[in-house]
Specification:
mainly alpha, 6 helices
Length: 132
C-alpha cells in the first residue's frame, strides 16, 4: 500500500534544516559578502586611514581627541599612536576572521568598518563645523 503524495511529503518544501542556504535571502547576502570580502577589507583600511587623517587634521585645528585610549596613545607617542591603535584593531579583526566560519567571514570587516566609517562621518562633520 502506497501513501498519498500529501502524506509522503511530495511537492512540499524541505524542512529548513535541509534547504540549501543559498535559497534564502540571507544565503544570497552571505554569498555576495563572501565574494566582496576583499573589497570590504580594503574599505576598512581606507576608513581607518581617513579616520586617522581627519583626527590629525582636527588636532591641528585645536580640537581634542575624546577617546581616552587614543588620547593616551597620542600623548605617549604622538600621531604614530593612532596608527598603532588602528593597526592593532586591524590585527584583532584579522585574527577573528581566522576563527569565524567562511559563511560569516564578511561580518568581521563589516563590524570593523562600520565604527570607522561612523568616526569618519563624525570627524568630517566636526571639522566642517569648525572651519565653516
Amino acid at each position: 500500500m502506497q501513501l498519498p503524495d500529501a502524506l509522503r511529503g511530495v511537492g512540499r518544501p524541505d524542512p529548513p534544516s535541509q534547504r540549501d542556504v543559498s535559497d534564502s535571502r540571507f544565503g544570497r547576502f552571505s554569498h555576495w559578502t563572501r565574494s566582496a570580502e576583499r573589497e570590504l577589507w580594503f574599505a576598512v583600511v581606507a576608513a581607518m586611514l581617513v579616520d586617522v587623517t581627519l583626527t590629525v587634521h582636527g588636532l591641528t585645528l585645536g580640537l581634542r581627541e575624546l577617546n581616552p585610549v587614543a588620547n593616551a596613545a597620542i600623548d605617549a607617542v604622538g600621531v604614530l599612536g593612532l596608527y598603532a591603535l588602528k593597526s592593532m584593531a586591524l590585527g584583532v579583526g584579522l585574527c577573528c576572521r581566522l576563527v569565524v566560519p567562511d559563511r560569516h567571514g564578511a561580518l568581521v570587516p563589516i563590524g570593523l568598518g562600520l565604527p570607522s566609517a561612523l568616526a569618519v562621518a563624525i570627524n568630517a562633520a566636526v571639522i566642517t563645523y569648525v572651519v565653516v
